[in-house]
Amino acid sequence: MTIQTEKGVGPMKMKNIVAMTMAATMVWNGTAVFGATGVKTAVLNDARISFNGGTPQTIQCYMIEGYNYIRARDVTNNLNMHVTQMQDENTGIVVQPNMAASSVRPTEKLTKQSAAVNVQKGWLVYDATPFEAECFLLDNRFYFKLSDFQKASDLSRDISLVWVAAEAADQGIKEPYPNTYYGMEVSWDAENRVVHVDRVNTDLKKVFDDIRSNQSQENEEMQKPEEPKKESQNSKNPESQEAVAKDSVEAVFQLVNQERKANGRRELVLDPTLCEAAQVRASELDTLFSHTRPSGESCFSILDEYGLRYSGVGENIAKGQRDADEVMDSWMNSEGHRNNILSSDFTKIGIGHTGDNWVQLFMK
User: Fold this and answer.
1) C-beta of residue 360 within 8 angstroms of C-beta of residue 291
2) Phi/psi of residue 158, each to 5°?
């Protein structure tokens, strides 16, 4: 696999080199075969997309079997990210979110009302981290699903956080490289039928400093004389821990319906089965904080496992909030999460909480 880089960007992080090497090995040794998934009919369609909270605009795309495939450059140009096609006969694109778009000129207007395209597995390489996704090439332009852009971004961010932790453990390193991770978040506003695509940044320097601070506190604690440990009643009684989680779920549920009533929406029903599914998702966030499950499946595959049928679905996740008020405040101050909470398309909700992980699953 060859990935183009440009001068002046700086050294590539070890995590990216490792990720590229692993992906390249998968192709070369034949353990993963990129065979075509078939020739499909792509029908010209329009999608309403808001970039970085701006006014929704109509973006041309092609729909295949109910899914919109967006021209890659239409996404990256609107987020001012650099994109190139892969070289050496590899299928896919390379997105460099820390570099400006090479051209901001509008892409050419699509005129083909339908086309036979070869949908295949390809690479969506985000910040030098390869992610395998379905795509097709039409008139020398690659098309991907918007959801796969976020999955690729989430994977790259998660790897970045792992390496920041490793850098923080090395006392010889003064700060992480780079200091900021530039990611992408995609959410669906069911009420207004708009897709929100936002550039979201993670302050890796803050993550690095927080880890270092925690390490210093732990070292100080280790040097203190050890005191006899007193077990709390909750630590002895699993039922008490379950009660705390149940109280948190009920508190979040009440706050959700308060917000919906205040905004003229019908109250949601707390569905017990959906809560069980949300609780599983909450536990999975310890392994992978993403809308992609540790198995690599979509977060919504959990609904199929519980036999839940739906015509509309959404998920909110959060990590680190101490109580229901704090997590709801975080969600309501995030446009995509707020849209899910207030969406008129949903009638049921399931809530999961374990440790400092929080999940809302919405369904109709």
Assistant:
1) no
2) -60, -40
Gap between the Cα atoms of 354 and 242, Å rounded: 9
- How far is residue 123's CA from residue 1's CA, in Å, rounded to a whole number? 10
Structure tokens at 65: 């079997």
Other C-beta atoms closer than 10 Å to the C-beta of 202 total 15
Compute the distance between CA of residue 299 and CA of residue 331 in angstroms, rounded to an integer: 18
Can you list the positions of beta strands (E) in the chain?
A: 36-51, 57-64, 67-71, 82-85, 92-96, 114-126, 132-138, 141-144, 180-189, 194-203, 269-270, 313-319, 348-354, 357-363
Structural tokens at position 82: 């650099």
- Backbone dihedral region for residue 39 (phi beyond 0: left; psi -120 to 50: alpha; all else: beta): beta
Spatial distance between the Cα atoms of 83 and 97, rounded to a whole number of angstroms: 8
Contact 60, 48 (CB under 8 A): no
Q: What is the pLDDT of residue 214?
A: 83
Looking at residue 235, its pLDDT comes to 42
Instruction: Name the residue type at position 266.
Output: R
DSSP class of 298: B
Q: Which of 357, 317, 308 minimizes the C-alpha distance to 340?
A: 317
C-alpha R_g of the chain: 22
Residue type, 29: N
Look at residue 207 and give its three-state secondary structure.
Answer: helix
In this prediction, residue 232 carries a pLDDT of: 42
284: its two tokens: 């999975």
pLDDT < 50 stretches in the chain: 1-36, 229-236, 238-241, 244
What is the three-class DSSP state of 51?
Answer: strand
For position 291, what pLDDT does the model report?
86
